[in-house]
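Hello Y.,

Per our agreement to keep a running log of every chain we model this quarter, I'm adding this entry. I've kept the format consistent with earlier entries: sequence first, then predicted structure.
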Amino acid sequence: MNDLFSASDAPESMVRPLAVRMRPRTLDEVVGQSHALTAGSPLRRLADPASRGSLTAPSSVILFGPPGVGKTTLAHIVAKQSGREYEELSAVTSGVKDLREVLRRAHERLVSQGKETVLFIDEVHRFSKSQQDALLPSVENRDVTFIAATTENPSFSVIKPLLSRSVVVKLDSLEPDELRTVLERAITDRAGSTAR
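Predicted structure for the entry above:
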């Protein structure tokens, strides 16, 4: 019998949003953004497991583009493909205390386990100057691989010291044929269907 609580027994794959179920797992599965994912690009270099401990890969990337273009997905993929830990904060809901706690964990992880951390901050333009300043020592010391997402032009919304230590990657809205590819994938891929 179906009742209000029977959904709690449903498999996780049925209750997770379609966008989450269809999220690309590798850079090669990403639709669109080909200009940002060419061989040797900052994101490709960061996603390469050989980039861990490397001083040639960027340690800080700001993803700039409209909503829904894959900024969070790209940060997830970079962390997973490269073998780094992943920590995420939203500048809308997090303060300096939250930031310092994540940076402390990342530093301890690096020192005690030799394990690097991707720190992803969504809506970084919402951080105040002092909150952005708090990031600088960890970015400079490479305690974290810093990836930020913003819908605002970082030249005006990110402090100059942080901006000067970052590679800005501009992301574009998907073209109609790219949207068609995403839709076709959702229809044909088993992860897109909740029917089993």
